[in-house]
């Protein structure tokens, strides 16, 4: 299939899942959601099915196991949320900067995503192979690149593929000041932010489309299940010397 021209590109069949890791419960205004909306509007215009979820609205237990009710917690909505994450092709983690770092909710989401990293797909690869990952950051203090690098490192470590320019963000002046959606903030008009958000969105769609067209990330030398059975992939497997 030829790569579509951007004006008529049709990515129907792709699914995107976006975590809005704001600390604000719905329906309180989320500045992070304001920047998410820029990205998801492009996706939806070109046929991508998008779901945005605020983890803070849900009863998600803290921990690094797939279902924390098996580890002392009375309730945990994560297993149900995971089913929708697993079905997605594009995975975006978005959130605010607090004290120069990612929010506590962002960290919790990454920990729960990590909890599923022992799972494998039907090729025997880690379960995140074939998904593409991106990051969106908002705030009114420095830290976009630091926060985005932590998210993107985490996603690729889990097995996601990260396209070029896979992060976008907006910050106002250092210290207390207007947030992205505040009147006169300049965020929605900021060329750097809007360009990066647009490029990130298109690169996520392009890469997800390429991977889906060929049936996921190529298998070969990266199948955990074969490694565990003794395959060495042209390098000595220390467990089977």
Given as residue ranges, the uncertain stretches (5+ residues, pLDDT < 50) are: none
Structural class: alpha/beta
Radius of gyration (CA) equals: 19 Å
The number of helical segments is: 6
Quick check: average pLDDT?
94
Could you give a short account of the major beta sheet?
A: 6 strands, mixed
The number of strands is: 6
Beta-strand proportion = 5-15%
Gap between N and C termini: 44 Å
H and E string:
EHEHEEHEHEHH
State the helical fraction.
Answer: 25-40%
Shape: globular
Oligomer: single chain
Summarize the structure in words.
- The protein is of the alpha/beta class and 241 residues long.
- The protein contains six helices and six strands.
- It has helices at residues 31-45, 78-86, 104-115, 144-158, 191-213, 224-228, and strands spanning 15-20, 49-53, 90-98, 101-102, 132-139, 167-171.
- Strands 1, 2, 3, 4, 5 and 6 form a six-stranded mixed β-sheet that branches.
- β3 (90-98) and β4 form a beta hairpin.
- α1 (31-45) crosses α5.
- The longest helix has 23 residues, at 191-213.
- The chain is globular.
- The model has no long low-confidence stretch (mean pLDDT 94).
SSE layout and pairings?
Blueprint: E1 15-20, H1 31-45, E2 49-53, H2 78-86, E3 90-98, E4 101-102, H3 104-115, E5 132-139, H4 144-158, E6 167-171, H5 191-213, H6 224-228
Helix pairs in contact: 1-5, 3-4
Condensed summary:
The chain is α/β, with parallel strands linked by helices and 241 residues long.
């Amino acid at each position: 299939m030829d790569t579509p021209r951007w004006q008529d590109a049709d990515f129907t069949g792709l699914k995107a899942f976006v975590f809005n890791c704001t600390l604000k419960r719905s329906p309180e205004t989320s500045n992070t959601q304001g920047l998410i909306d820029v990205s998801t509007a492009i996706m939806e215009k070109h046929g991508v099915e998008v779901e945005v979820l605020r983890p803070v609205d849900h009863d998600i237990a803290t921990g690094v196991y797939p279902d924390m009710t098996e580890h002392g917690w009375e309730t945990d909505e994560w297993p149900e949320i995971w089913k929708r994450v697993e079905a997605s092709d594009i995975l975006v983690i978005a959130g605010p900067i607090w004290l120069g770092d990612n929010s506590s909710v962002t960290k919790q989401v990454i920990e729960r995503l990590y909890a599923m990293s022992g799972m494998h797909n039907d090729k025997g690869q880690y379960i995140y192979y074939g998904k593409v990952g991106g990051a969106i950051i908002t705030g009114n203090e420095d830290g976009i690149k630091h926060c985005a690098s932590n998210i993107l490192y985490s996603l690729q470590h889990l097995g996601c593929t990260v396209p070029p320019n896979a992060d976008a963000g907006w910050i106002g002046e250092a210290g207390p000041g207007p947030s992205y959606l505040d009147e006169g903030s300049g965020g929605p008009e900021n060329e750097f932010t809007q360009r990066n958000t647009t490029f990130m969105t298109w690169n996520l769609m392009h890469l997800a489309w390429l991977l889906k067209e060929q049936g996921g990330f190529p298998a070969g030398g990266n199948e955990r299940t074969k490694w565990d059975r003794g395959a060495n992939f042209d390098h000595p497997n220390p467990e089977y010397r």
